[in-house]
Amino acid sequence: MITRFVLFLLTSGLGTIIDTLVVWVFSTFVFDGYVGDYIISPIIAFEVACLCNFTCSYFFIWNRRIEQKTKKTFVGKYLVYNLSASGTFGVKMVFLLLVAKLTGWNVVICNLVALCFSGAINYAMSEWVIFRDKKSKPGEKNNNI
Length: 145
What we know:
Oligomer: single chain
Order of helices and strands: HHHH
Distance between the termini: 6 Å
Shape: elongated
Helix content: over 70%
Number of domains: 1
Number of strands: 0
Number of helices: 4
Largest sheet: none
């Protein structure tokens, strides 16, 4: 589990870079105004980072828990992952808007702060729901990577 967590942190770091870069690009060059900068840009960034993080999770972090690697399995798990991550995204957006309101900081900084809070939820959902080990019983220790 520790190895998966470290790999998850590395993948999350990549996702954070992608998310932040996309927010910056869209809020700087595409949108002008609160809704574009603080609502639409983070939504687009979320979807881009979500696909990147899921792909890393599917092929590198929880790959041993996936019995059949088919297009159908990939898409099916991605839909569940995206649904889970969307819920977490809601939490992230609440934090982002709250930090922005309380501090007046730039959207990129608020986004980074909010990502810190939502990362733990994403890991828990991936570990125990999306890529759960179906071979072990609840409460049983599993050393699968």
